Amino acid sequence: MRILAAFIFFTRLPFWRIKEVPAEYFKRIVPYWPLTGWLTGGIMVAVLWLSAQVLPVHTAWLLAIISRLLVTGCLHEDGLADFFDGFGGGTTKERTLSIMKDPHIGSYGVIGLICYFLLLFLLLENEPLNLICALIISGDCWSKLCASQIINYLPYSRKEEESKAKVVYDRMTWKELSTGFICGLLPALLFLPEELWMIMLCPLLTFFLLYRLMKRRIQGYTGDCCGAAFLLCELSFYLGAIILLRVYSYLSFACFLSC
């Protein structure tokens, strides 16, 4: 039931038609966030792979990005925009939370989204198709696992009735944490080359920095913070992959010259 609740909440696909889920189950959906990455990441990979058979890879990559926006209803991107607005324009906890709850997007949100999407597209547009597919499914699941840990380390910053989703997530049990860890880690172990496993440290570092920022500024987290943490962790995953690939390429070239 909690898995179904997670798919209902984190996607806009009609899972709600399967069975009505009581509200209390939505308090424990975050541990299954990485599992939804198998669906959202899988859809992106399918769109990318099929589109690349008839279109340039960079165009197929853009269509894959759009496909996730449609599947999730821009849930995380909305959180990222609010996060940029709140943390960019607010100086106190109260002011930051007030800005984040404002339904209107501000200049920080607009500029932040533009920079995010430019980086997201440009980082992978020229990479081999097979590599992009492996990075998508691995980065989606692993970054959601990293971002989901925010509920274990910080309290919710608002009162429950002030939440946009009208729900405050419960902290994970050890069993839920183990489930999320398996769902988040398995795609990387299955699809990523071993020499790229190191890039999984990048989302962890990004999460730590965001955790420190949220703790100092608002002494907790909000739903917008969760969405922003996921997207920024995922972006750091792709950035780390490209940097590491360039380092390997440089070292191989240097070894070739030395021989």
What is the overall pLDDT average? 90
The level of helicity is over 70%
What's the SSE pattern? HHHHHHHHHHH
Our measurement of the CA-to-CA distance between the termini, rounded to an integer number of angstroms, reads 60 Å
Number of domains: 1
- What is the tally of helical segments? 11
Give the CA-based shape. Answer: globular
Strand content: under 5%
**Rg result:** 19 Å
Largest sheet: none
Number of strands: 0
The chain-level structural class is mainly alpha
Uncertain residue ranges: none
Give a summary of the structure in a few sentences.
The chain has 259 residues and is mainly α. It has 11 helices and no strands.
Can you walk through the features of this model?
- The longest helix is centred in the last third of the chain and has 36 residues, at 223-258.
- This protein has helices at 2-10, 33-52, 57-72, 75-89, 93-101, 107-124, 129-148, 150-153, 174-191, 201-217, 223-258.
- The chain is built from 11 helices and no strands.
- With 259 residues, the chain is mostly helical.
- Helices cover 70% and strands 0% of the residues.
- The chain has one domain (2-258).
- It is globular and about 60 Å long.
- The relative contact order is 0.14.
- The termini are far apart.
- The mean pLDDT is 90.
